[in-house]
Structures
1.
Amino acid sequence: MRTYSGHSTARASNELYRTNLAKGQTGLSIAFDLPTQTGYDPDHIMARGEVGKVGVPVTHLGDMRTLLDGIPQGSMNTSMTINAPAAWMLALYVANATAHGVDSRELRGTTQNDIVKEYLSRGTYIFPPVPSRRLIVDMFAYCNSNVPLWNPMNVCSYHLQEAGATPTQELAFSLATAIGVLDAVRQSGQVPADRMPEIVASVSFFVNAGIRFVEETAKMRAFTQMWDRITLERYGVTDPKARRFRYGVQVNSLGLTEAQPENNVQRIVLEMLGVSISKSARARSIQLPAWNEALGLPRPWDQQWSLRIQQVLALESDLLEYDDIFDGSHVMEGLTADLVESAQSELDEILALGGAFEAIDEMKGRLVQSHATRMRRIESGEQTVIGVNAFTETAESPLSGDDSILRVDPAVQAHAVEALADWRAQRDNAAVQRAVEELRRVARTDENIMPATIALAEAGGTTGEWSQTLRDEFGEFRAPTGVAAAAGVGGGSAALRHLSEYVRTLPEGPPRLLVAKPGLDGHSNGAEQIAVAARDAGLEVIYQGIRLTPEQIAAAARDEDVDIIAVSILSGSHMELIPEVIRLIRANGVDAPIVAGGIIPTEDQAALIAAGAERIYTPKDYDLTAIMADMIAIATGREVPGAEVRPRDREVEAVKT
C-alpha cells in the first residue's frame, strides 16, 4: 500500500514519508519534481517556477541522503517515478546505500523508466528514442548482475489511458514497449541467453484503472493472458512464475473532476475494484490518487484518506478471501477474449511498423484521436460525468476553500539554488570533472553506462551535469504533438462545424491561435485537445509542443502574427510563469488577447486576470465548442451568432471588478 508523494524539499518529503510509513504505508513511491524528471538543476532557466511543485527535487547525493534519512534502504521497497534520468536516480540510490553499508544486491524496488509513454503522453523525455533505449538496456544488464531484486523498468500504461487510450490501445502500446526493450536487451549481447528469463521476469507493469471497472477487470485478465503468451512464445520462458504479469496500479486521474470533487471519492473506490476483485489478475500494489487532485496538490490528510480506502478494502472487507469470483463467467470471459483479439491486432500493427520505438508518431496520433473522441462524447452528453454534464446542482461543499490543496512556498526554489551553490563549493570539483569526462567517453562507446553514472554520483555530480553530458552526446528530442492526425476525427462535432462555417465568413479571415505550454509541464492532453478543436472550428493553429520558455513563446507570438494566445499549465507553476509570459509578449509589442487554462485554483485567478489574462479556463470547462466560440469572440471583438454566454464570462468580469 503506497501513496505517490514528495514535494518542496528532500527534508520535507522525508518527514512525509516517515509519517506515512508510521500510518501503515508499506513502501515508498517517490514523486520527483519536473526539473529532476527532465534533467535540470534548480538554477537552470527551465526550472523557473517548477522546483518542488509536483514532487521532490533530487539534485545530488546529498539530496538522496536527506530524502532517505532514517529509512532502511535494505528492507524498503521503493518505487521511483523517473524516466529519462532513471539511470542517474538509480545511481544515486545505489551510491547512498553503499555509503550506508547496504549491499546493492539487497535493494528492492522499481524505476519506472518507460520512455515510450513519455513521448506519447507525459512529456518528461530528454533524449531521442534510440539512445534512450540504450540507457534502459544498460540498466537491465547492470541490475541483472548487481541489483538483482530491482525492477529496472515498469512498463507504464497508466499515462496512456490518461492521454485518452482505449483499453485496446493501453494493452497493445504497453506490450509493444515491453517487446521493444526486451528484444533490444537480447540483441545487446550484454546478457547471456540463459539469463534472459531473469530479465523477462524483472519486467513489471504500472497500469491504470478507469471508472468502467467491469471492463477494466477484463482488461487486466487480458493483460495476464497476453503477457503469458508473449513471454513463452517470444522469449522461451518456461517457468510459469517468471511469466507472471506483475503489476502495480494507480487508479484513473483523468476522470477526477474539479466540479463536485467529492464525487471523486466514490470514483476512486470503484476504480480500485477493477484491479483487486479478480484474484487471477489482481494488482501486487495499489496507490490511489487523492480526491482533490483536479484542484491542485493534495495535502498529507488527503493522502491519508487514500491510504485508508485501501486499508478498509484489504482489512475490513472479504474481497481478498475468495478464489477468483469471475472464473466461469461467460460475460467476463467473452469481454476478455474480445479485448485480447483487438489488442493483438493493434499490437501486430505496431510491430509491423518496426516496434514501439519506431512508431512513436503513429501511436501519438492514435492517442490524440481517441482522446478527441472521448471529449466529443462528454461534450454531447453521450458520456455522462456526474457534476460536469449531468446533475450539476450542488450544495456548497465543506471541503472547498483555499486550504483544500497544498501550496508550495515560492521561496523553495531560491533555497534550492542556494543549497546547490553550497554543494558545488564544498565538493571536489576536479573529481567531478574527471567523472563527467569518463561518462562522456562511455556514452560514445557501447560500454554499459551505469558504472560511470554511479561514479559521477559518488563524486558529487548533479542531475543537470549528468543529463547535460548526455544531451551533448545523444542530442535532445522533440516529440510529435499528434494534433494533425486528430483534427476532424470522426468528422468533428456538428457544433464545431457550425463554428467553422461562421469563421469562413469573417472578412479578415480565420483567427490565428497560438497554443503555448511554458515551463516543464509535459501533460499536454488539454493543450492538444484545444488545438484539435480550434482546427475543427476553422482557426489557424500554431502549436509547437511542450517545454517552451516564456521568451520562446513571446517570440512566437511576435513572429506568427497571432490574434489570440492560449497558455496551458497543469504543474502548479501558473503564478510564476503566466504573468512572465504576458509581460514578455507585451514587451514584444504584441497586443493579442491572452487566455489561460489548466489546474488553476479559483483563489489564483484574480491575480492572473490582473496580470492581463482575458479568460481562465479550468477542468470545469469541458465544453470545447463553448471555449472555441469564446476564443473566436475574444479574438475578433464581436459576438459569435448563436453562442451562449458562458457563466465563466460573468465570473471573470466579477474577478476583474
2.
Amino acid sequence: MMNTKNIFRGLITILWLAFAVSSCESYNEELLDGIGNTREFSPIGLTAKIRNSTTVELDWGVKADENPDHYVVEFSADDPEFKTIFKTINVTPSQLPVQVALEGETTYSIRVKSVSAAGLEDSKWSITTATTLSEQIFFPIKDEEIQATSVTLRWTPNSNVTHILLQPGNLNHTITAEEKVAGVAVVTGLTPETNYDVTLKNGTKTRGTLQFTSGVDLTNGIIVNPGDDLNAKIAQASAGSRLLLMPGNFQTTGEVILNKTLIIRGVRPENRPILNVKFTINSGLVNLSLMDLELKGTGLNNAAVVTVSGASSNYGDILITKCAIHDYTRALIAANASNSKVASFTVDNSIVKSVNTNAGADFIDFRNSHVASIVLKNSTFDSCSTSRDFVRVDGVVPANGGFSGTGLKTTILIQNCTLYNVSNLTAPKRILYVRFLDNSSTVMNTLIVSTSAIYTNHAATETPAFSKNYYYTAESFMDATIPLNKVDATGVTANPQFVDAATGNFKVQNQSMIDNNIGDPRWLK
C-alpha cells in the first residue's frame, strides 16, 4: 500500500515538473522574443493619417537601442486579411514619417515589420488601417474660364476618366477620347450665377471634385462702365436693381450716397472694378450687397467704408462678399444713427487690409444704432484697427437714442477668419468690445497672429463660445493673469508658417492647421 502511494506521488511530481519546464520554455521564448534576442522589435505606436485625400502618412516609434536595417510596409486594398498585396515599400528609420500615395475611396489594411541589420529574425507585423478620400486630379478652375453658361475644366492629362457630373441640374458630360488625352473639357448648358458642385468620375469612382459659381448674367442688371458717373447710375436705378460694374478703374470718387436697396457687383471676379469711394447709407435703403469689388480709400479724408447715417430707420442686411478692401482711415462700418436698427452686417470671402488706421474709430463700430447680427467668415483682416478695438457694439439706452435693455440682442460670429496684426499697438485692445445689454459671441476655426489684443475684459461682454482656434505671437488670448480677461481655454498655440505675411501671403504650411481647417480657407489650399 505504501509503495503504491509513493509511486502515485512520484508520478504527480514528474508530471508537475514536466509542466513547469514546458511553461518555463514557453515563457523564456516570449521573454527572449520580447527583449529582441531572437528577432527584431515590432514597430510600436503605428499611426496612419490621411494627407491630401489620397496620401497616407505613416509613423511609428523607434527606440534608441533599436537598430533595424529597414522596415517592410505592405498595403492591401479593401482586404483586411492581406490576401492580395497592393503595394510594398521599404522604409529606413531616417525616412519617418513617410508619405505614400494611394488610390482614392479605398480602405487599406497596412502592416509593418522590422528587418534586422544583425541577422535576427524579422519582427512580427504591426497592423493599422486607413481609408482614403476621393482623389483630386482636377486642376483649379481659372476665373477667366468661367462664363455665364459654360466652364472649362482641366485635369491631369491622359487620366482614366469617363464623365463629369454637375449639380444642380444633374448635368452629365461624357468625356471624349480627345478630351481624356488633353485633360480638358468645356461644359455648356449652365445657369448663370449658380453655385455648382462638379465631380470627375471614372465609372463609379470619383477622381476629382470642384466647386464654382457660374458667371454673371449681363442681361439681368444695369451695366456700368469705368467712365460712367456711378452716382448718376445709382440715382437712375430703381430700388432692388443690380448694378453690374465692368472691369477697370472707375472715375467716380468720394462719397456715394445710397437710399434704396441695391446690389453693386463686379462682373469678373478675377478682374474686379476698382472704386475709390466711401458709401453712406440713408433712410430708404433696406438691403445692400457689395460683391466682387476692389474698394480703396486712398486720398479720402477720414473715410469709413460704409457709414449708416439715416436716423430712426430700419435697415435690413448689409453684405460685403468676395471683395478686396484697403487703405481706409476709418471704420469698415460706422453706425451712430440714433434710433436705427440694422438686421445684419456680414463680411464673407473677402480680404481687408489697412482699414481704420487713424485711431479715430473702431473697426466694426456700432454705437447708437443697434445691430442684431455681425458675421465675419472666410475672410482675412490684415493690419486693421491697429490702435483700436476690432468689434465694438455700445450699450446705448433708449433715452440716448439706442436700444440696449429693450429685449433686443446682438449676436457675433467669427468663423474661419485669419486676423493678422489687428488691434495691436495699444494693449490691451479687444477683439470683442460689446456693451449692448443682451449679447452672445462665437469664435471658431479662426487663426489670430501677431497681436497683443485680448478678446474682452468688459463685464457686459458675455464670455464667447470658443472652438478650434489657433494663436501665434498672440499670447494674451489665453493669459488668465490679465485682469478680467475672458480667455480661450481651448485655444492652441502654433506657428502657421505663413509663406510671407509681410506681402500679404498668408498661405499656411502648418499641416495640423490645414487638417483642422483653421483660418481663412483661401490660405489652406
3.
Amino acid sequence: MNRKVFLIIGGNILLLGIALACNIGGARQAEPGAMEPTGPIVSMAVASSLDDQGRLVDPAFTFSPDQPQITVIVQVGQGVTTPLEIVWYRVTDEGEEQLFTVTFVVAALDRAYSVGQNPGTLAPGTYRVRATLDGQTQETEFDVAGEPQETTANTGGSAAGQPPVAGPSGTTPQASPAVSAAGSSDLGAWAGLGPGNYPLVDLQADTVEIYPFLGYVNAPLEIPLDGLPAFYGTFQYFVNGVPVSNPFEYPVFGETQTGPYPPDRFPICEVLWPNGSDLPGTQVRVEASVRMVEGGSGSIVTEESVITLGDDTLAPRVGVISTPARTTKVMAGDQIVLTVTATEKRSGGPWQMGVERIQVIGPEGLVDSEDYQDYRGKACDAKSWEQTFEVTYTVPENPPPQIELCAIGEDFAGNTQSRCGTFYTVNVWEGTLHSESTVGGILNCTEIWDMQLVFTVSEDGTIQGAGNGNFVAQYDCYSSILPDHDFSDQATSLAFNVEGTADRNQLNLQLVLFDVQGGGFNGLLNYSLFGGASNTPAILEVPITALGTAYGNTQIRGAAENGETYSGSHTLELKCNNCEN
C-alpha cells in the first residue's frame, strides 16, 4: 500500500505552535531537554476579535478608546475537569477593581474567549484579565491608550469613558492545519490561532509552546506489516541556530490524520542563558523529518519552520510614590519628592525590550530624566526589567493654583506610560452630584445621572474645575405622539468644566458642558443643568455647612422652545481637602 506523507510545521501567534496531526501510538522515544509540563491553561492572548476560523484579528496589548471590543483568548490544554472562570479587572492606584466574571464549560484543546465590549468610550488605563481552570491561574494585561482619569481640578480634557462591559463568551475548536495538494512537501504556517498565514510570530512572553504536526500529501511510502509503525516523525528545536532540545520522535501508525496534540513548553531564557535571547525578533527554528522503520521504503521528508518572537507593544508599568501625597496643598519653596518605578512585564504580555528612560514633566517642562542606554540590546536577566528614579521638584515663587507633575516611563521600543499627580496652592473641593431630570410634553421621561467634580477656590473666591458623569437609569418614559421613539438613544457619559464664585458661607457653581459620549441625544441634563439652547447653565447654590463641608439641593424648572416642560433636582455633597480656616 502507498501512503502520502505531508509534513506541516507551524507557529501560532498565541501559542508559538507547531502541531502534530497524525494517528500516534505510544509515547515519544526521547523527551526534549529543558521542557516544562503544560497545565490545563496553555496560554492567553488579547486581540480585537476572532475570525470564523478561530484566529486572532488584530492582536495587540494596547488599544484605542474607540476600540469596539477587546477579546481575551485562553488556549485550553488537556485533562480539564472544571469550568473555566475568566475575571476582568481595571487596575488603579488603589489596586484591582473587578469589572465582570464569566464562567463556562470547556473541553480539551478548546480556544476559549471572553469579549469586553465598549459601552461608548473606553476609559484609558491598564486592565487585567485572570483565567482559572482546574486550580491553575494565568493572567494577561492590556492598556487602553491615554492618561488614566484621575479626579483633579483640570479645566480641560474629555469624558472619562467607561471600562469594558461583559460581551459574548464561549469556545471554538482548535483549527486543523491546511494541507496543500501540490508538491512532494510543503510548509503549512499558523498565525492568529489558525493555519495558513505567514510569517509565524509569537506575541506573548515568557515561555514557548511548540506543537508538532504531521499530515499526508504526495510523498509515497511503503507501509510495513500491520501493527508496526509506518514511520517516525523526528523533531528538534533551535533558538537563533543553537539547539534547545535533543531530537525526539513520534512513532506513526495507521493512515488517519488526527490532532492537534498538547504542546512542548520551555522558558526561552532558562534553556539557553547566557547565550539565549528573549528579545523581540529572536528566532525559534524547528527542524522535522520523517524516518522510515526498518523494512520500509520511500522518500525522506525534511522541513523546518522559523518562529519569530513578536514586537514589544506594551509600555512599562509606571508607579509613583509622592511625598507629600497627591492633592496636598503646597506653597512656594516647598519640595515635592517623586520616587518613580518603571517595570517591564515579564509574562502575560509581549516580549519586552526593556526600560530605556524615566522622566518627570512639570508646568515648566522637563524637571529631570534618567536614561539606561547601557541596557540596550540586553536579554533575559541582563535586561532593563525595572528602574527606579527619584526626582525633587521645588514649588516656584508665585505658583499657579495647581501644579501637575507627570512621570513617564519609556521602553526601547518607544512605548510610553505616564502617571500624573496634581498638587494645589489654593483650597480644593471635591464631591458628587446626583441629578434627576424630567421632561414632559411630546416626550415624557425621567433620567438619573451621577457625577464627580473637583474645583479650586482662589483667594478672591473664583472657582475653577472640572468633572465628569455617567448615565445611571431612566424610568416612566413614553410618548403618546411618537410611540416608536427610542429613549435609549442618548448620552452615556459626559464631561464639563466647573465655574463660579465662593464666599465664606456658600459655593455658587455653574457646570459648562464640553464633551458628550454615547447616543444621539444629550440627555435631559442638557435642559435642567447645562442650559439647553440658551447655553446658560443653572446656578447651583451649595451652603457651606461646616468647616470643609458643603451640602445643597437645587430645584430647576422651565420650558424648552418647543413647549416641553422640564425640571431637575440636583444634590451636591462636597468636602474641602485642604481647608484650614
